[in-house]
Design brief:
The protein has one helix and no strands. By secondary structure, it is mainly alpha-helical.
Length: 146
């Protein structure tokens, strides 16, 4: 407001009083305009703050939902990993048994190959012997016939 020293006698004569009143009205209009502008800006600011707060709340809700889903996914992933680990253990046992079987089977095949070689030698020798006896017989028969 105005300082009391402004209300001295020199402002009390009618011409100065008129000037004083005009200045006072002008100043009051400026203050009123500034107050209206300030109020408008404050209302806009309050609206922005509310909007920001609502956006923040929505974001927090969405973030909370996302975090919950992420936690659920992590739990499912952990269960999957446990199942995968058990499967891998079973697969490893199976592979070990398969390796043992393959070793035994390979030994059996090697033994069979040896047996087959031995048998084929025996059969070939017997066959050669029979052929030789047959040739001898045929030679003998041919000699008798001639």
């Amino acid at each position: 407001m105005f300082h009391p020293s402004l209300l001295t006698a020199r402002y009390m004569d009618p011409s100065n009083f008129q000037t004083f009143m005009e200045a006072l009205l002008s100043r009051m209009e400026q203050q009123e305009t500034q107050a209206a502008t300030t109020n408008t800006l404050l209302l806009e600011l309050v609206g922005e703050v509310r909007g920001t707060r609502q956006d923040s709340q929505r974001f927090q809700q969405q973030q909370s939902l996302f975090n919950q889903r992420l936690l659920e996914w992590a739990e499912r992933q952990e269960k999957f990993n446990e199942r995968q680990e058990k499967f891998n253990e079973r697969q490893e046992k199976f592979n070990e048994r398969q390796d043992q079987f393959n070793i035994i089977f390979l030994d059996e095949i090697r033994g069979m190959k040896k047996d087959i070689r031995d048998l084929s030698e025996v059969v070939l020798k017997q066959h050669e012997g029979r052929l030789k006896r047959l040739e001898d017989l045929m030679d003998g028969l041919m000699r008798q016939a001639s």
